[in-house]
Amino acid sequence: MAELDLLRSLPFEIAEPSEEARGRARGRLLRHMRRSGSARRRRLLVPAAGLAAAGATAALVGVGLHGDGNASAAPVLRKFAKVAGSQPAPAPIGAHRFRYTKSVQAFLVIDGDKGWVALGPKVRELWEGPSGGLLHETSGKPEFLSSRDRALWIAAGRPRVNAPAATEKLPPSPALNLPTNPDALYAKLHDESVGNANGTEAEMFTLVGDALRETAASPALRSSLYEVAARIPGVELVGPAVDRIGRHGLAVAYAGRVDHERHELIFDPKTSALLEEEDVALDGNEFGYPAGTVIGYATYVSTGVVDGLGTRPTPR
Amino acid sequence: MAGRPELSSALRAIEGVTDAQAIGDSLAEPEAFAVLFDRHFDAVHGYAQRRVGPDLADEIAAETFTRAFDRRRRYDASREDARPWLLGIAANLLRRHWRSERRRLDAYARSAEFEAGGDLAPPVAAELAAALRALPRREREPLLLLAWADLSYEEIGVALGVPIGTVRSRISRGRARLRGPNLDSHRPQEAPNNG
């Protein structure tokens, strides 16, 4: 280990960080956490993620524009705002009334030792009631990023990709606490986004997505969220899209210039419900994946109101 | 840097929560993430400081934690200790500062009064700095995480997102490249003849 000893003896003087530097850095982290870390924040991995509106039988109607991925999504989002505002309010929850949502969500699982990377889908079932809820997760089949990843996983003895099935109790979901006036909502989301490492607009798009997937948002708030999305510079219309369970919708996206990822949302034009989210790596992404690699998705499968924790709605 | 893993284990034992648990908790309670900072800031800062000097280290160490917070959902919860992950984020940030790092190594390599550190003969240290500067990044990075951050091969794999076999071969190649004539004949305070 002579070379290592030599490297360690290189006379680079190392001092403990100054108290001032440590304090500044800690303050920066705390401010950052406050700005970007509320409990239900961030796309995709939110335990309380659910479907925004009832009915998973959408047909592609209404807006029907064909975007090329660079067109502004504003006109389409404004139509969604109208559609959202005219939807019925979400069914209230209460004693013996729980909101049930089912989704399939997949995130990257990276095995640094063996070198394989896969998407590990989980089927998530969520029951939400006024005094708490329940989350039940089961694992789906891993989706490897490439045949090489799959081969490495096989060579490693086919280890489990996702955790085994699990059920956990959840505290009550916090209230959304967002204004329904579009100007006030824009100002609030903008304030929360300024200074975010991924860029103000990217963060605003994320915030809008976070709130849209909330089941509790009122029609007025959902309408306002679409209006705000229409005003965020850089939100693109992708065009007609089909989600992973075959439903037709319209997709909008924001391509992050900092994280080099494209975040896509597919909506049902008939109800404005969020059908699916997808994250795609772009050139320059931190993982070095080929552009176009899907690195995460969430498909919102169904929702309904049931009379007990653990009870599933009757299929229609 | 030696002794830090013991220290962080002790802290964890006292506080009764692993890094992975703190990260998991921070998904619902963002403040839970602050414990990561308290445990690992000095290690991240120390590593950055060796690479690019104290001023840039302040910036890189601070940015490492805000980035880590943003990426915490992707954290592999089976890894109790988050230090390798954090150092990997710092290593990524350091890539942007290769110019500073190079200047720093150049300055050492050129320095006629290279004696600050004690037990390395100046020409040896100068040659080592030059050899380090010449290493390809894919070899320099794992080698420095091993030598300066005391990570294991496995942890380096986690930090850099590469398989452990790759870590081994890169470190082995890097070490071979560092083995110049001066370094082979290294003896403290004894200058080799072609320094």
Summarize the structure in words.
The complex is a heterodimer of chains A (316) and B (195). Chain A has helices spanning 2-9, 19-36, 74-85, 147-155, 182-193, 200-212, 219-231; strands at residues 71-72, 98-110, 117-129, 132-139, 143-144, 166-170, 236-242, 248-255, 261-267, 274-281, 294-306. With 316 residues, chain A is an alpha+beta fold. Chain A has one domain. In chain A, strands 1, 2, 3, 4, 5, 6, 7, 8, 9, 10 and 11 form an 11-stranded antiparallel beta sheet that branches. In chain A, strand 9 and strand 10 (274-281) form a beta hairpin. By secondary structure, chain B is mainly alpha-helical. Chain B has 2 domains: 1-96, Rna Polymerase Sigma Factor, Chain: A (Orthogonal Bundle); 97-195, Orthogonal Bundle (Arc Repressor Mutant, subunit A). In chain B, 70% of the residues lie in helices and 0% in strands. The two termini of chain B are 30 Å apart. Chains A and B meet through helix 1, helix 2 and strand 2 of A and helix 2, helix 3, helix 4, helix 7 and helix 8 of B.
In short:
The complex is a heterodimer of chains A (316) and B (195). Chain A is an alpha+beta fold and 316 residues long.
Number of helices of chain A: 7
Beta percentage of chain A is 25-35%
Largest sheet of chain B: none
Could you state the order of secondary-structure elements of chain A as H and E? HHEHEEEEHEHHHEEEEE
Number of strand segments of chain A: 11
Helix content of chain B: 55-70%
What proportion of the residues of chain A is helical, as a percent range?
25-40%
Number of domains of chain A: 1
- Main β-sheet of chain A, in a few words? 11 strands, antiparallel
- Number of extended strands of chain B: 0
Structural class of chain B: mainly alpha
State the end-to-end CA separation of chain B: 30 Å
| SSE-based structural type of chain A | alpha+beta
Task: Return the domain count of chain B.
Answer: 2
What pair of chains forms the biggest interface? A-B, 48 and 65 residues
Flag low-confidence runs of chain A.
Answer: 37-69
